[in-house]
Amino acid sequence: MTIKLLGIGKTDDPALQDLTNVYIKRLQFYTKFELELIPDIKNAKNLDENQQKQKEGELLLSRLTASDFVVLLDENGKQFSSVGFSEFLQKRMNSGLKQLVFIIGGPYGFSSEVYQRADSKLSLSKMTFSHQMVRLFFVEQLYRGFTILRNEPYHHR
């Protein structure tokens, strides 16, 4: 199974990008992982919130296949403990999925079409984080989830 993290925009802060890359590199020992970032919408300042969500939604949906299991990283999604998230990952792997796709939306969230396509929603916290920070937090939790599944000492129970 491939796990993909799909998002909008690049990471401006090199320190955040470096930390994210550390966990992406570590993940390669556990699973096939891809980070795909769609460039920011051009002239977004000339669009209203709904127009921007619509354009971003079209770009996100164009990157999906019919067989993908899609999880939106959404403030109203289900919250897991790290152990609970590892169990979620194990269930998806056991189901024979080809690709599990986690999506971070743009600054205004997701279009209704993206919500309709989603199979699940996941919240990392009730707090709001920058999209760049969410990438780091997510890949770290993904790495932690795999270390839990392997009973490795990274996660102390």
Automatic annotation (TrEMBL):
Gene Ontology, cellular component aspect: cytoplasm
Family: Belongs to the RNA methyltransferase RlmH family.
Transmembrane segments: none
Residues reported to bind S-adenosyl-L-methionine: L73, G105, L124, S125, K126, M127, T128, F129
Localization annotation: Cytoplasm
Protein known as: Ribosomal RNA large subunit methyltransferase H
Reaction catalysed by this enzyme: pseudouridine(1915) in 23S rRNA + S-adenosyl-L-methionine = N(3)-methylpseudouridine(1915) in 23S rRNA + S-adenosyl-L-homocysteine + H(+)
Keywords: Cytoplasm, Methyltransferase, rRNA processing, S-adenosyl-L-methionine, Transferase
Example of a GO MF term: rRNA (pseudouridine-N3-)-methyltransferase activity
Oligomer and partners: Homodimer.
Function: Specifically methylates the pseudouridine at position 1915 (m3Psi1915) in 23S rRNA.
Gene label: rlmH
Signal sequence bounds: none
Keyword Methyltransferase: yes
Annotated InterPro entries: Alpha/beta_knot_MTases, RlmH-like, tRNA_m1G_MTases_N
Pfam families named among the record's database cross-references: SPOUT_MTase
Annotated EC: 2.1.1.177
